[in-house]
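Side project, low priority. Logging it here so it doesn't get lost.
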Amino acid sequence: MRERRNRDHGDNVTPLRPRGGAGGGAGRSSGPPAFNLPPMTRMIAMVLIAIHVIDWFAGGAIARHAVFSGLHDGLRSLFSLFTYALVHASLGHLAMNLVGLVILGKVLEPRIGGKWLLIMLAIGSAAGALVHILVSSGWLIGSSAGIGALYGVALPAAKNGRFGAYDRLVILLSLLFVGISLAGLVLPIMGGVAHAAHLGGFLAGLFMSQKLIR
């Protein structure tokens, strides 16, 4: 997620199953190949990449219309609660969010379904934007708040051992996401990054976690 201040620069497998035979621990699995992604995760990743490429050729025209800049512009503001998550400030910005999407989509989509994966990305984006405007007037761009919601959904489940071989990775990345966001919110570091939006998305996902993964 990037924050832009007055033009500044402000995520098909089967469910994981334990392997049978000797040495196969219950509830643990090495999982399928890394790039064998669930369908919704794959589709979202392809859409984000396609939009970024098209926007690059269009000179940023899509981003200029999609960014979130507050709730002062009627219907456009309501749409922008979600559309800002479709565009990214740079290739690196997109890549970081795709890494989170791929890892979290791989463990979450088989359990909550593609529909709820997409819904949580949307909820996280909207929640992140609303929290952001409480502390900043900068523009928002990027899907990090939506990815934050997926971290919020996944963290409690990973702590309970629901993702097998992916548990430790999900816990580590979730704690890094939250820790960096908290540090950036209270310390004068990583300017231009919308840390409040990240945390807003994460909290929205955390709130929904027990409802989605039992």
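Brief comment: Residues 1 and 144 are 4 Å apart (CA to CA).
Revisit when time allows.
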